[in-house]
Amino acid sequence: MGKIIKKSIKRNQIYKKINSDGNKTIKNYMAEWEKKGKIIKTPFVELSKKLKDEHELNFESKAICDYWWNILDPRLEHSPYSKEEKDHIYEWANKYQENGNIQWTLLQAEMETKFGKFRARNELKNIWNVKKRQLEAKSSNLKKEDDKNEGESECEDELKYDKTDVEYAIGKHAIQFLINPSK
Description:
Helix content is 69%, strand content 0%. It has helices at 14-17, 20-35, 43-55, 61-72, 83-98, 104-115, 121-150, 154-159, 163-179. The longest helix has 30 residues, at 121-150.
């Protein structure tokens, strides 16, 4: 075999590196941007330049954008999610996943309208991705169990007395029995 090469993931950890002056600059700039009617279409590019000039902080505009929308925005609600909120996220994301790309900004606006809480996009994605992984794991385990049991004969299924095996055998063969009672 060949060498295993680990790729290092370079993450821009702005939240660990930025100081309170930098946070204040971002908040003030974004407040001014909103007061002016959001005329500048690339506020985070401008902020990146401003932070570099004023505070000698070198961050990419994308990192500043993510930092603003997920951490600094004063409208953000960081309280725990209710069951109703999580259920809404699951339903919404599942519906839009079928259409292709999930637009988290639309869900963010809908959550604010429906529940009165402005949630971070990353939090919404995380809630959905955790549920999606749980469903995939459950589906994978059921498939493995079906594959394992499919190789066994009908007689072996009936001879097992373990409760889970009996329930599985009943569930698997009950439909066949109802369709063809002579079997």
